[in-house]
Amino acid sequence: MSVHPLPVFNPRPTLERVEIGEGQYAQVIDDVLLNPEALVDLALQHRDQFQRPAGYAYPGVELWMPTDFSSRLDDFFRIHIRRLLGGRRTVGMGCRLSMVNFAPNELAPRQWNCHRDVNDLPAGQCMAASVLYLFKDPALGGTSFYRPRLSPADTDQLVCDAVAMDGPAFTKRYGIAPGYMAGSNNYFERTAMVPARWNRMAFYDGTVFHSGDVGSAQALVDDPRIGRLTLNGFFSCTRVAG
């Protein structure tokens, strides 16, 4: 896919540190792009190329970006963010344009709860993630962060069961009804929420449980002009020693 124009990042960003859990912080930047409208236009131009993902839990459609596009985000992460999230050197990254558009009755059990972007990391590595909100209606929802109420072993079992079980069996075992997560439940406590705002970007540790706050029916459409369009980035890094 030929991508033009490329994202142009604010060369003098103002970072706000937001506590999302004990000892964990997100870095939030407003007005992060100089040309955010161009990404909405890009999504419209390639609307027919968005696809539903296979093999993981994103409840919508996505379009992965090529290297010349993602390298702009990688440069911004390297210059302004990486060390703040404990990273020393980036060993892999990618980004995608995404739109949540599953109806609640289409969701699988693994999509009824918050999630981590990675469950296991190689020794000496960390993972960061980012989300850029490319919509102007704040009712479409920001991002919430959670901590488990269960032990690590019981939390891992819940995560595994959410993948292995069908909906009725999962509901019978855990008492969780189908639908998007909305705040704390018996298994996860919401610790923080980053509200959505046009051209706002948040970077955070991808191993922290989190979930999009899908609070409006408009979030369930795949029209980039009115849907919950985001740019999501993922960064695997070696960890700062110490």
Description:
The chain is of the alpha+beta class and 242 residues long. Helix content is 19%, strand content 32%. It has four helices and ten strands, in the order ββαβαβββααββββ. It has helices at 36-45, 67-81, 152-164, 167-174, and strands spanning 15-21, 24-30, 60-64, 87-100, 125-133, 143-148, 188-194, 200-205, 209-212, 228-239. The strands form two sheets. Strands 1-2-8-5-10-4-3 form a seven-stranded antiparallel β-sheet, with helices on one face. Strands 7-6-9 form a three-stranded antiparallel β-sheet, with no helix packed on it. The protein is globular and about 50 Å long.
Write a concise keyword list for the protein shown above.
3-stranded antiparallel sheet, 242 residues, 19% helix, alpha+beta, 7-stranded antiparallel sheet, 32% strand
Write the layout of secondary structure elements.
Layout: E1 15-21, E2 24-30, H1 36-45, E3 60-64, H2 67-81, E4 87-100, E5 125-133, E6 143-148, H3 152-164, H4 167-174, E7 188-194, E8 200-205, E9 209-212, E10 228-239
Antiparallel strand pairs: 1-2, 2-8, 3-4, 4-10, 5-8, 5-10, 6-7, 6-9
